[in-house]
# Entry
Amino acid sequence: MNVTRDLFNDVMVPNYNPSAVIPVKGLGSRLWDQAGTEYIDFAGGIAVNALGHCHPDLVNTLKTQGETLWHLSNVLTNEPALRLAKKLVDATFAEKVFFANSGAEANEAALKLARRFALEQYGAQKNQIIAFKQGFHGRTFFTVTVGGQPDYSDGFGPKPGNIDHIEFNDLAALEALISDKTCAVMMEPLQGEGGVVSPTKEFAVGVRALCDKHNALLIFDEVQTGVGRTGDLYAYMGLDVVPDILTSAKALGGGFPIGAMLTTTAIAAHLKVGTHGSTYGGNPLACAVAETVLDIINTPEVLSGVKQKEQLFRQGLEAINQKYNCFSEIRGKGLLIGAVLNEQFKGRARDFLVASANEQLMCLVAGASVIRFAPSLLIPDEDIQQGLVRFEHAVAKVVNG
# Structure
């Protein structure tokens, strides 16, 4: 069969518009397309390929588990799921884990749990969910409505109710809106899709305090920030703010689909038998791979390496900006970095992305005015340096027209 980009238009639903480049092989931080052209990967499958492509330990785990046990359903439990849950509990504030297949599913579980907890503890009137503009929590109808980007949730009929949005980092707005009818506040400890925006320390601490005051649960969506991305195992650890519920996915499976919701025993008790479920959630293949990912990333060497590599990126991007004056700010944390376009280039992030691909570099955008980088946490320093050379060529082409 002749597989080309045109075949996509023939057989796929048109909700995506992928690049003309079709990768066929990956290794570490490199990708090769059908023509054998080599690319450096600063996109990481949108913060998913945290150990790069085809990491030998992950390949080995997948092969071994693939010859042992694939799927059981949750009528039975399995060893990889229990081992992974134990390691997640030991490494975090949490005491209980629910497994799903994606970040959206983990967030769906978190939101359902928050509503159920409030209903059973306080009554039906306590059902308000507060989230933040430009936030992103997934594409199910509940999670996309809680997400603060109406473009993604409009046009599908009546939305789930009692969900309110305020500006990120605006503590006064939260204080004005939150009340004893609020069941949960949901936030990313570093907004990813919304432009790579960090919370201020004061804001993060203030959100926790307001949730405590009004008996509302604090849900941290760590789908993009979790599992080493910021240089801490989970971003909440770097903020010194502990959530009530945390969601994880993306990097957790290193490219194999898995999601997890983490919480305390007291809160988890409200998802009694039969209240929620997932056919594939917790399947042995995904959990075995995720256990290997966690074992590799949750080490001082890898986590401190992320912080060192962040500095390399920042220095390189600042140097490019000294020459071409196109960024107003380099922001983010760890290896989730946003280069914010200044007034002159506002709205043109996609032009930089396309120009980068033409220079054999894969990167991302976060909205129309932010170029986003989320490479492998193990990306070699040489690949960072060489990738930045390619990025500089792309920047030069855009800036010089």
Notes: The CA atoms of residues 106 and 261 lie 5 Å apart. The mean pLDDT is 97. The chain has 15 helices and 15 strands. The first helix runs from residue 5 to 11.
